[in-house]
Prior knowledge:
Layout: E1 8-12, E2 15-22, H1 27-36, E3 42-51, H2 53-62, E4 68-69, H3 73-87, H4 98-134, H5 143-153, H6 158-181, H7 189-227, H8 230-236, H9 241-279, H10 284-294, H11 296-324, H12 329-360
Parallel strand pairs: 2-3, 3-4
Antiparallel strand pairs: 1-2
Amino acid sequence: MPAAITPGLSVQGDVLAASGDWTLAAAPRLADLVARSSRTARIDASAIARLDTAGARLLLDLADLERIDGLDAKRRALLEAVAKASSTQAPAAKPANGLFEVFARTGLAVERIARDAVKLIGFIGLVLATIARTVPNPRRWRPTSLAFHLEQTGLDAVPIVVLLNFLVGAVVAFLGATVLKDFGATIYTVELIGYSFLREFGVLLTAILIAGRSGSAFTAQIGSMKSREELDAIRTLGLDPIEVLVMPRLLALLIALPLLTLLAMLAGIVGGGVVGALSMDISPTLFVNRLHELGATRHFWVGMSKAPIFAFLIACIGCLEGFKVSGSAESVGTHTTSSVVQAIFMAILVDALAAIFFMEIDV
């Protein structure tokens, strides 16, 4: 390889003579020379020993292409290519219109929601197919994994579910008593507590807590496995990731959420009963009797019927968002957030539809 020739610039009348190697290796020195020189009428490049794209770009900083002389055909073609690439600019952006921007962002959001809905429906179908294939074959069951996730999603969540519903029950009792006292109907606080927690609050608050606690955990666990290429390893071993990762989590949540809902209902009613006994002189016996007159069993089954649906949706959304992770830590965080938002939204949407349905059939 020939020795490098130090690049230089010299003034010869109204012509600037360039010499030496105008290459990337000499770019720092060339940049300094160009910075200390001003654009000139003409450049004589006949003394340049070697020229690459970096040197060509610096030459063009000194003069336009047609004012650079002394180049052979090959170097002239190189200079033309660099000049063409440098002159290529993005089209000027149109002035922003606030209303159009709102419509554009709304359209993109609707399109994204539609895509997510289609993917969720497809994933639910895949899960159902896996259940149908796995359940009849006991050798493919995974009791150890099921027990682990049952403890993680169910037993470990008992304190927060019970405490939250107890406090919400107490708050609802206070609010109900405050309003009903003006009408001399404080005793109907019992019906308010029983009706709200047996039909709505018990299962809905539990579903929201589980969506934020277990649904996000499912996404983070599966997403981290995907980022570490553990899912590829599972497939390489001839195993089905849906069967290995999704099924134990789904079954655990299907078992845990109804049990947690039962505890939530009891905790909310107890919270309301404590407030009634301490602030409204409603004895525990009277409280229980009025719950019995309310027809608590019917309302209890209405609330419990929604628990498996919530569990299924939360598990599917959490696992699906985990499979969507692209591999980076940022992607894990993004899809974990998306999992929680989608699961809570679906829980509230299904609860609203169920409330309308039960109202229409007079249950």
